[in-house]
Design brief:
This protein has 751 residues and is an alpha/beta fold. Among the domains are: 335-539, Rossmann fold; 638-750, Immunoglobulins (Immunoglobulin-like), CATH 2.60.40. Helix content is 27%, strand content 19%. The chain has 22 helices and 27 strands. The strands form six sheets. It has a seven-stranded mixed beta sheet. It has a six-stranded mixed beta sheet with strand order 12-17-16-15-13-14, sandwiched between helices. Strand 13, helix 14 and strand 14 (408-412) form a beta-alpha-beta unit. Helix 15 (443-454) packs parallel to helix 16. It is globular. The two termini are 18 Å apart. The chain binds beta-D-glucopyranose.
Length: 751
C-alpha cells in the first residue's frame, strides 16, 4: 500500500460504536419492539401482501391490525394528479391540482441548499394534503449524457452538487412527515433500453460519481425509502442487486427503511427476495403467491419475510397515515408552496451571455416575443413526471404582466413545437421515430415572425426543446435545437440585432449556430408554476440573474465523454429501442410473463462506462476541450470580486475563508465555487473537482466574509485494491471562483 494513503472509517460508524448520537437511519429502529409484536400477530398471507403493489400507487397494510396502506405519489417536482387505482389514467378529481415546482435541473441551477430544503418541504407538505406517505423522489441520477431523456428531472452532472441538494430535499420533505423514495438506485443514466441495459462500470466510478447523492441522502438525511432502478449494474438488475442493495445500501450505509422497485422493474422472486427488494410495484406477480410457495418448499424462510415487513413497518410507523376524511379536503397547491416555486425559479435562471442588452432598457417600447416555447405549458408531458398544476404562468404571460402599459408586447409562434405525443394510453403513443427534432423551419411562420421582429425595439426569441423531445422512456437523438430554430433565429437577427434568446429546456442544447446571432442568451428551464413571473423579473432587471449551470453545455455532442469514448449509443446497437418495442401491437397483447420472455430473448444491451469518473466538466477540463458554456457558469447584472483567500487544513476538514464583494449597483447573489486540484499526486484524479460551494446574497457595494468547508472525508477516493475509501496525503491546490472556468483565487494546503 502507498505510504501516502490512510484508510478512514466513516464518522458515522465511529460515532455509533462509541455510543454517540443515533444516526438518522438508526432512529428508524426505535419502534422495533412494537413492530415485532405486530409481526407476531400477522399471518404469512398478510405479510406477503405487504410486499407488492395493491393499486398502481399503493402497497397494502393490514387493516385488522390498524396498519394503514402505504400511499405513493410521483414526484419529483410536484404531487402528481390522482390516477385510477389500476393505472396512470386520471381519476378526474378536482382538488388534486398541485404546485408545479421547477424541474430538477432548474433546482440544481440555484446551487442553493436552503432552497432545496424548502422545495422538499413544499413537496412533503402537499403530499400530506393528498394523504400520500411516500414521494417518489428526489430523482438524483447523474447527468452523464447530454441527450438523457430525464436530464430535466435529475439535478446535476456533479456528485457533490447533486448530493448536497438531494440531502436537503430529503430533510425538507421528511420534516413534513412524508418519506422520500430516492431514485433511481443506481446508474440509471440513460433511457435507451432502460429496462434491460447493463451499466458496466468500475467500483471507484460507482462510488465517487454515481452513488454519492444517494449516500448522503441516506446516511445524513435518513432517507426512508429507495427505488431500485430498471437497469442492471454490472450484470444484475438493480431490484435484485446484492452489491447495491445488501452490501452497500444496508451493509455499509446502515439503511433501515424499505426499497420499492421501479414500476414493473422486478424480475424474479428469488432474486428480489434474497437480494434486497422489499416491495414490488406493478408487473408480474413475483412477490405474492410465489413467495408463499417458496416458503412451503423451503427455498425461502418466513424469517426473511418478517425482516422485509419489519423494514416496511419502520417507515409506516415513522410516517403517520393521514386519516380518511382529513386528506383531500383542500386544493393540493398551497400559496406558500407556490412562493417556494417562485423563489426557486427566480434563482435558477442562468444568464449565459450578455452583450449589454439585458436587462431590458427603459427606452424599449415594442417587444416582439417569438417562439412557441413562450406560450407552451410545461407542467405535464415527458411521460411520468408531470403535474396537473393549479396554474402556470408562461413566459409570454409573465412578460406581458411585467411590461405593463406603455410597452407593446406582440407574439408570433415562429415555429410549431414538436407535438406532445404521449397520450394517456400507450396505444396513443406515436412511434419514437416520429419524435423527430430536425424539422425544417416553416416559411409562413418565419415570415410572420420576421415582420414582427423588424418592427420591434427588442426581439425575445424563445427556443429550446419540449417535453416530447426530452422525456422519460427515450433519450434525445442529438442535442440540436428542434423545429428549424437555428434557421429562424438567423433571419430574426438579420431583421433586428437587438435580440435575446431564451432557452426553455431541461437539458443542454447545441448552440453553435445560435450563439453568434444572439447578443444575449438566457437558460430559462422548465420553471414551474411561476416560471413566467420569474423570467420577466430577470429580463426586466427587477432581480439580477443568479443561476449557474449544473451541467456542461458541450460545443457539440461528440465532445462529451460517453460519446467521445464510443460508449453511447451502444456501439453494438444491441437490443434496439426496447421502449418502442414495448408498444408494438403484438407485444402489447402479451401477458406480463410472455413479455418478460420476449425481453429475455432479445440481445442484451450494454452501456460501458469506460470514461470512468471523467463525467461532465471533469472530462472537458482534463482533456482540455473547451465547452460552449462550462459547468458552474452564469453571469449577473453586477460584477463580483473575490479577495483575501485563506485556507487551512485541520484534522477533519479543509476550511477556506475569503471576502466577496458586489461591485455593482443592485443587490445580487453569487454562487462561490471551490474546486480542488491535486498536485504531485500518485493517484489518478480529474484536473479539478468541485468540493464546496455557497450562494451569497450581497447588496450593492456590500462585502461579506465567506467560509467554505470541505470535510476531510469528501477528499477521499475509492481505493479499488483495498476496496475501501482512502485519503491521499499531499498538496492540494484550492481554486475559488464563480464558475469552473472562472477561477479568481487559489491557495494551497497540505493534507
Ligand atoms: C419511473 C419512476 C416513477 C414510476 C411511477 C416509472 O416509469 O421510472 O420514476 O416514479 O414510473 O410513476
Amino acid at each position: 500500500m502507498n505510504k501516502h494513503i490512510v484508510f478512514l472509517t466513516s464518522a458515522l460508524l465511529v460515532a455509533s460504536a462509541c455510543g454517540g448520537p443515533m444516526s438518522p437511519q438508526d432512529r428508524l429502529t426505535v419502534n422495533d419492539e412494537k413492530i415485532n409484536a405486530l409481526i407476531a400477530q400477522m399471518t404469512l398471507e398478510e405479510k406477503v401482501n405487504m410486499l407488492h403493489s395493491k393499486t398502481n400507487m399503493s402497497s397494502a397494510g393490514v387493516e385488522r391490525l390498524g396498519i394503514a396502506d402505504m400511499n405513493y405519489a410521483d414526484g419529483p417536482f410536484g404531487i402528481r394528479e390522482e390516477g385510477q387505482p389500476n393505472g396512470f389514467m386520471s381519476a378526474g378529481w378536482t382538488l388534486d391540482s398541485a404546485t408545479y415546482f421547477p424541474t430538477g435541473s432548474a433546482l440544481a441551477a440555484t446551487w442553493s441548499e436552503e432552497l432545496a430544503y424548502k422545495y422538499g418541504s413544499g413537496m412533503g407538505k402537499e403530499a400530506r394534503l393528498r394523504g400520500k406517505d411516500v414521494i417518489l423522489g428526489p430523482a438524483v441520477n447523474i447527468q452523464r449524457l447530454p441527450v438523457g431523456g430525464r436530464t430535466y428531472e435529475y439535478l446535476s452532472e456533479d456528485p457533490i452538487l447533486s448530493a448536497a441538494l438531494a440531502l436537503e430535499y430529503t430533510k425538507g420533505c421528511q420534516d413534513q412527515g412524508t418519506a422520500v423514495c430516492i431514485k433511481h438506485f443506481a446508474v440509471n443514466n440513460q433511457e435507451t433500453n432502460r429496462g434491460s441495459v447493463d451499466a458496466q462500470l468500475d467500483e471507484r466510478t460507482l462510488r465517487e460519481i454515481y452513488l454519492k447523492p444517494f449516500e448522503r441522502a441516506i446516511i445524513e438525511g435518513g432517507a426512508m425509502s429507495v427505488m431500485p432502478a430498471y437497469n442492471k449494474v454490472n450484470g444484475d438488475y438493480c431490484s435484485e442487486n446484492e452489491h447495491l442493495l445488501n452490501e452497500i445500501l444496508r451493509g455499509e450505509w446502515g439503511f433501515k427503511g424499505f426499497t420499492v422497485s421501479d414500476w414493473g422493474g422486478t424480475h424474479s422472486t428469488m432474486g428480489a427476495m434474497l437480494h434486497g427488494l422489499n416491495v414490488q410495484m406493478t408487473g408480474s406477480n413475483y412477490l405474492g403467491q410465489p413467495v408463499i410457495d417458496s416458503i412451503a418448499t423451503g427455498a425461502l424462510t418466513e424469517d426473511l419475510v418478517d425482516e422485509k415487513v419489519r423494514q416496511i413497518l419502520r417507515v409506516r410507523m415513522a410516517i403517520e397515515a393521514v386519516p380518511e376524511g382529513v386528506a383531500n379536503t383542500v386544493m393540493t397547491s398551497q400559496p406558500e408552496c407556490q412562493a417556494i416555486a417562485r423563489e426557486v425559479a427566480e434563482k435558477s435562471i442562468v444568464l449565459l451571455k450578455n452583450e449589454d442588452i439585458l436587462p431590458i432598457k427603459a427606452d424599449v417600447k415594442k417587444i416582439a416575443v417569438i417562439g412557441q416555447n413562450a406560450v407552451l405549458k410545461t407542467q405535464s408531458g415527458g411521460m411520468g413526471a408531470g403535474v396537473k398544476a393549479l396554474y402556470e404562468i408562461t413566459p409570454l404571460e409573465g412578460i406581458r404582466r411585467r411590461a405593463g402599459e406603455g410597452v407593446e408586447v406582440s407574439y408570433a409562434p415562429g415555429y410549431k413545437a414538436t407535438a406532445f405525443r404521449w397520450g394517456p394510453a400507450p396505444a396513443e403513443l406515436a412511434p419514437l421515430e416520429a419524435r423527430s427534432n430536425d424539422e425544417p423551419a416553416d416559411p409562413a411562420l418565419v415570415a410572420e415572425a420576421v415582420a414582427l421582429a423588424k418592427d420591434a425595439d427588442l426581439v425575445l426569441f424563445f427556443g429550446g426543446t419540449s417535453k416530447s423531445i426530452e422525456t422519460e422512456g427515450s433519450d434525445r437523438k442529438n442535442i440540436d435545437l428542434p423545429c428549424g430554430q437555428n434557421e429562424l433565429v438567423k433571419v430574426l437577427y438579420a431583421a433586428n440585432r437587438n435580440l435575446v434568446t431564451v432557452l426553455i429546456s431541461g437539458g443542454p442544447t447545441d448552440l453553435r449556430f445560435l450563439e453568434p446571432v444572439s447578443p444575449a442568451i438566457v437558460q430559462g428551464w422548465w420553471n414551474g408554476t411561476e416560471g413566467g413571473t420569474a423570467l420577466a423579473e430577470v429580463l426586466f432587471g427587477d432581480i439580477a440573474p443568479s443561476g449557474k449551470l449544473p451541467f456542461t453545455f458541450p460545443r457539440k455532442l461528440e465532445d462529451s465523454p460517453a460519446y467521445a469514448m464510443g460508449n453511447f449509443p451502444d456501439p453494438n446497437g444491441a437490443g434496439g429501442d426496447l421502449f418502442s418495442l414495448m408498444f408494438r401491437p403484438d407485444v402489447l397483447k402479451m401477458s406480463p410473463e410472455e413479455r418478460q420472455k420476449f425481453i429475455d430473448s432479445l440481445p442484451k444491451p450494454v452501456s460501458k462506462y469506460t470514461e470512468r469518473f471523467y463525467v461532465g466538466y471533469r472530462w472537458f477540463d482534463t482533456k482540455g476541450i473547451e465547452p460552449m458554456y462550462a459547468f458552474g457558469h452564469g453571469l449577473s447584472y453586477v460584477v463580483f470580486s473575490y479577495h483575501d483567500m485563506k485556507a487551512k487544513a485541520g484534522k477533519d476538514a479543509v476550511t477556506v475563508t475569503f471576502t466577496l464583494k458586489n461591485e455593482g449597483e443592485m443587490p445580487a447573489d453569487e454562487v462561490a465555487q471551490l474546486y480542488v486540484h491535486r498536485e504531485d499526486s500518485q493517484v489518478e484524479w480529474p484536473m479539478k473537482e468541485l468540493k464546496a460551494f455557497k450562494r451569497v446574497s450581497l447588496n450593492a457595494g456590500e462585502s461579506k466574509t465567506v467560509t467554505l468547508t470541505i470535510p476531510m472525508k469528501e477528499l477521499r477516493y475509492w481505493d479499488e485494491a483495498a476496496n475501501a475509501w482512502a485519503l491521499e496525503h499531499g498538496d492540494l491546490e484550492l481554486l475559488l471562483g464563480g464558475a469552473s472556468d472562472d477561477i479568481q483565487l487559489a491557495a494551497h494546503v497540505n493534507i
